[in-house]
Amino acid sequence: MSSGRQTAGGPRWTQTWLGGARSAGADLGYPGERLGLPEQGSRAVAGYGRRLVALFVDWGLCMVISAFAVRVLELPGQYRSLLTLGLFALQAVVLTATIGMTLGKRLCGIRVVRLDGRPVGPVWALVRTALILAVVPALLWDRDHRGLHDRAANTVVINI
């Protein structure tokens, strides 16, 4: 019986399943290959970093606006978080449905597109945003860098 330690004959048995399919020698291709997208450049699948920066920019902007609104309208401070969430949802739905990107996405050079070539539209932008607000679906990604929110709306985030 093996103890799971490194042996002279090969690597530990955990190295293949902990490292994922690539460490086991599977060729999965580049993100977006299965979707017919290029590997690099314009229309390639956007990386995690750019998407995360865009999210922080959008959320930060909504925090600034809600803090200002709470002060100007003299609302109780506990409304600021709810207002931030509402503003984030509103801007994500409206801007993604109309132009395919939020301000943060624009600054990071990425946009949301539907795989069938049609505009994202208000219904799919609403579905996508609701799943982002639920947090967990947005954290579950496939090998094409699409979260469950993207898969549900049949969208992908690409470089401009």
UniProtKB/TrEMBL annotation:
Tell me where the transmembrane regions lie: 52-70, 82-103, 123-141
InterPro entries in alphabetical order: Pra-immunoreactive, RDD, UCP021697
| Compartments where found | Cell membrane
Keywords for this entry?
A: Cell membrane, Membrane, Transmembrane, Transmembrane helix
Q: Which domain of life is it from?
A: Bacteria
* Cleaved signal peptide residues: none
Q: How does it sit in the membrane?
A: Multi-pass membrane protein
> Taking every annotated instance into account, which residue ranges of this chain make up the domain RDD?
45-154
The primary site where this protein sits is membrane
Listed PANTHER family? PROLINE-RICH ANTIGEN HOMOLOG, PROLINE-RICH ANTIGEN HOMOLOG-RELATED
What is this protein called in UniProt?
Answer: Putative RDD family membrane protein YckC
